[in-house]
Design brief:
Low-confidence stretches: 229-233
Mean pLDDT: 92
Shape: globular
Number of strands: 11
Helix content: 25-40%
Strand order of the largest sheet: 7-8-9-3-10-11
Number of helices: 7
């Protein structure tokens, strides 16, 4: 990504972002609500109109037809058919993607929805809906997963299980870009992109951010960057 700029209502909401994400890494995109995380992720997936700059994904311009089966995307607002069961939703999306027939059952187990596979989407809890949306993103064999707040509303045990899954996927050379506004998830990432008001405050490893800001707490590191005590880009 080079000098990405996005405008909304005549206002620049993403301002000249430039960074690269190494293949097979777990990268956290962190910052307060409204800082531009979702807009940035939409730009990576190729569904966001941009005002300037370039976004290249797996060697192709973002949104290219060649990327259709290579990128998985889970939004903050799960997009499922309310009157279909979890399994029926996944079977439908698997057929659209041309994913293996066994994939729906595989991803249901990976996200911990085995007991809810026959429930309709409308009857799921908020946390279950987010897991079902994540399951859709995992169908097939995506090389890049773009996950917008995938652990919101989940209990601590399931969050730990999902992060273990994310690292297992990275070990298979899948690249993950995961947004969150919860700073305690930052330590689970191999690299962090810290955002505020459409700009990058930092692009580094958790260890390097702690060292550069002189604190052992990543939330404190973020606050120090916000307050201008440190500048790390």
């Amino acid at each position: 990504m080079s000098d990405l700029r996005v405008e909304r209502g005549g206002r620049e909401v993403v301002r000249g972002l430039t960074f690269e994400v190494p293949r097979g890494s777990v990268v956290g995109l962190l910052g307060p609500s409204g800082c531009g995380k979702t807009t940035l992720m939409r730009s990576v997936v190729g569904v966001q109109i941009v005002a300037g700059g370039t976004v290249t994904v797996l060697g192709h311009p973002a949104g290219s037809r060649a990327l259709r089966r290579r990128v998985g995307y889970a939004t903050q607002n799960p997009a499922l058919y309310a009157d279909l069961s979890v399994r029926e939703n996944l079977r439908y999306f698997a057929s659209v993607l041309g994913a293996p027939r066994a994939d729906p059952d595989r991803v249901i187990e990976e996200v911990g929805l085995g007991d809810a596979r026959d429930q309709t989407a409308v009857s799921l809890s908020g946390g279950q809906l987010h897991r079902a949306s994540l399951a859709v993103a995992l169908l097939g064999a995506p090389e890049l997963l773009v996950l917008d707040e995938p652990t919101v509303g989940l209990d601590p045990v399931l969050r730990v299980e999902l992060w273990a899954l994310f690292h297992e996927l990275a070990a298979r050379e899948v690249t993950l870009l995961i947004s969150s506004h919860v700073m305690d998830e930052a330590a689970r990432c191999e690299r962090l992109l810290l955002m505020r008001e459409g700009t990058l405050l930092a692009d580094d490893t958790p260890e390097a951010l702690r060292a550069s800001t002189g604190t052992d707490d990543l939330e404190d590191a973020f606050l120090r960057l916000v307050q201008g005590q440190e500048t790390v880009v």
